[in-house]
Design goal:
Blueprint (H helix, E strand, L loop, with lengths): L4 E6 L5 E2 L17 E5 L1 H7 L2 H5 L31 E3 L1 H7 L3 E6 L10 H13 L5 E4 L3 H13 L3 E6 L4 H10 L2 E5 L3 H15 L2 E2 L7 H6 L1 H9 L7 E5 L4 H16 L7 E7 L4 H8 L26 H10 L3 E5 L1 H12 L8 H15 L8 E6 L7 H10 L11 H8 L1
Parallel strand pairs: 5-13, 6-7, 6-9, 7-8, 10-11, 10-13, 11-12
Antiparallel strand pairs: 1-2, 1-3, 4-5
Helix pairs in contact: 4-5, 5-6, 9-10, 10-12, 13-14, 13-15
Bound molecules: pyridoxal-5'-phosphate and zinc ion.
Length: about 425
C-alpha cells in the first residue's frame, strides 16, 4: 500500500531498509542514523501528473498525496494544512532593489507555524500503526502543531518543551488538551528525555531529525511554491534553520519535482541561522564535519531556531551544499528589526524565527550575494502572535510606541497635529 516507497536509506552508511523494517533511524548509529525516504518516481509519475493538479480543487497538502509516505487509503486529519499564500511583495522588493520577491506565509497554517505540515504526517503514520500515544519534544511550534492535529482526530499525545518556551505556545498545548511536560532545561534536554521515554513506553515518536517522515511533510512547501509559480522554480529560497529539518524538506521536495520532470532546475537554498545558534553556519564556513562537530551553547530570541546540536544537520548541510546555496548568520538585533521591516510593506506578521529568514535576505542583498534579477522566495515559518513579547521589543527597538490620550478632541489634536 506504500508501494511507491522503495526503501529508507541511511544518510551515514548508505544501508537501505524496507519501510516496515525500521521505525525511525538506522540501528547502526543510534539516534544519529537519520534515514531518507526514497521513492519509485516512475510509479508516482503514473499516479499523478501536473495536468491532474490543474483540475484538483483540494487546496491542501493532500493534493500531493501520491508523493507522500502514507497509505493511499489512510484518512487525513480534518484541519486544512497547506496551500498557504505566496505573496508577490512589490514594495518590499523595491526597498531591497529586487525585481521579483515573494513571501510564502506559513504563519497562516492552522496552529500558526510551518510545523503543521510535518505533524499532519506524524498523526497519519501513528494511526497507521495503531499507536495509542504520540510524543514529541519541541521548542514550541512542533508541539503546538502536533497538539492541534491530534485534537482534530482525538489522538492522545504527550509533549516535552523547555520551560522557557513562549507562553503563547504553551497555551496552545494546554488548550488543545495535550499532556504537557515542561522540562527544566534546554530543547536538547527535552529531546533526550522524550527519546528515552518514547522508547521505554512504546509511544510513537514525532521528534524532528529522528522520525524520517517529518521531512516528507515539510517538503510539501516546495510543491506549493513551484505550483504557485506556474512550475517555474525560483532562483533562491530563504528559510530560517534550527534543526535543519525544514531546509532538508524543502530540498527533498525540489528533488522530487526534478525527478518527476515538473521543474527543470534546482533553486539555491539559503539557510538563515541566529548568530547565537549558528552551528550549521559555522560548520559550513569552516568546512567542519557535522558528524563530529560538538554541540554549541545556543541562545537566541528566535526560540524556534535555537538548537545546540541541529538534529537534521546532515540533511541541512546537503541542502545548502548540493544547491550551491549558503548559510547566513543574523544577530538577534537584526532578527527583531526584520519583524516590522517585513510587516510594514506587506502586512505579514512573523515571529522572530520567521522574520529571521527575511533578515537573512537583507544581509544577502547588502553583501552582494543576490542579484537584482533573481526570483526570490522568503518563507515566513511562524506567526507573529506566537511571541508578542518579542514583537513589542522589536517595535521599541525602532522607537515606535502608542500614544496615550484623554478622551477629548482637544487632547487628541495636541498630540497628532
Ligand atoms: C521549527 C521552526 C524553524 C526551523 O526549522 P528546523 O527544521 O528546526 O530548521 C523555523 N521557524 C519556525 C517558526 C519554526 O517553528
Ligand atoms: Zn547507517
Amino acid at each position: 500500500m506504500t508501494d511507491h516507497i522503495l526503501h529508507l536509506k541511511c544518510l551515514i552508511c548508505g544501508k537501505t531498509y524496507a519501510p516496515d523494517e525500521i521505525a525511525y533511524v538506522c540501528p547502526d548509529h543510534g539516534a544519529e542514523g537519520i534515514v531518507d525516504v526514497q521513492y519509485d518516481y516512475d510509479l508516482i509519475g503514473r499516479r499523478i501528473s501536473q495536468g491532474d493538479l490543474l483540475y484538483n480543487t483540494n487546496y491542501t497538502i493532500w493534493r500531493y498525496k501520491p508523493l507522500l509516505p502514507i497509505n493511499r487509503d489512510s484518512k487525513v486529519p480534518p484541519l486544512t494544512v497547506g496551500w498557504t499564500p505566496l505573496y508577490r511583495t512589490r514594495r518590499l522588493a523595491a526597498e531591497l532593489g529586487l525585481k521579483q520577491l515573494w513571501v510564502k506565509d506559513d504563519g497562516r497554517l492552522p496552529t500558526a507555524s510551518f510545523k503543521d505540515r510535518a505533524s499532519a504526517i506524524a498523526v497519519i503514520k501513528a494511526q497507521e500503526q495503531q499507536a495509542t500515544m504520540i510524543a514529541v519534544a519541541s521548542t514550541g511550534n512542533a508541539a503546538a502543531a502536533l497538539s492541534g492535529l491530534c485534537a482534530s482526530v482525538g489522538q492522545p499525545n504527550i509533549i516535552f518543551v523547555p520551560e522557557t518556551a513562549p507562553p503563547a505556545k504553551i497555551a496552545q498545548l494546554l488548550v488543545f488538551g495535550s499532556q504537557v511536560i515542561l522540562v527544566k532545561g534546554s530543547y536538547d534536554d527535552a529531546f533526550e528525555l522524550c527519546l528515552q521515554a518514547a522508547a521505554k513506553y512504546g509511544w510513537y515518536n514525532r521528534n524532528t531529525g529522528y522520525n524520517p517522515y517529518m521531512t516528507e511533510g515539510k517538503k510539501t512547501v516546495s510543491y506549493e511554491i513551484c505550483e504557485q509559480l506556474g512550475w517555474r522554480a525560483p532562483d533562491r529560497i530563504f528559510v530560517s534553520v534550527g534543526d535543519g529539518c525544514i531546509i532538508g524538506g524543502i530540498h527533498k521536495g525540489l528533488t522530487d519535482l526534478l525527478e518527476l520532470g515538473w521543474i527543470n532546475r534546482m533553486p539555491k537554498l539559503m539557510g538563515v541561522q541566529a548568530a547565537g545558534s549558528a552551528y550549521l553556519y559555522e560548520a559550513w564556513q569552516n568546512g567542519e564535519d557535522v558528524l563530529i562537530k560538538p554541540p554549541i551553547k545556543a541562545t537566541t530570541i528566535a526560540d524556534s531556531i535555537s538548537a545546540g546540536l541541529p538534529r537534521d544537520r546532515l540533511k541541512a548541510m546537503r541542502a545548502v551544499r548540493e544547491t550551491q546555496g549558503a548559510f547566513i548568520s543574523v544577530t538577534d538585533k537584526e532578527i527583531l528589526a526584520a519583524i516590522p521591516a517585513l510587516a510594514r510593506p506587506t502586512g505579514i506578521f512573523a515571529e522572530p524565527a520567521g522574520a529571521a529568514a527575511y533578515a537573512g535576505l537583507v544581509k544577502a542583498v547588502n553583501e552582494g550575494l543576490v542579484s537584482a534579477n533573481e526570483r526570490i522566495v522568503v518563507i515566513n515559518t511562524g506567526n507573529g502572535l506566537k511571541d508578542v513579547a518579542s514583537a513589542m521589543t522589536a517595535v521599541q527597538q525602532i522607537g515606535t510606541q502608542a500614544q496615550r490620550v484623554e478622551p477629548s478632541l482637544a487632547a487628541l489634536e495636541r498630540i497628532i497635529l
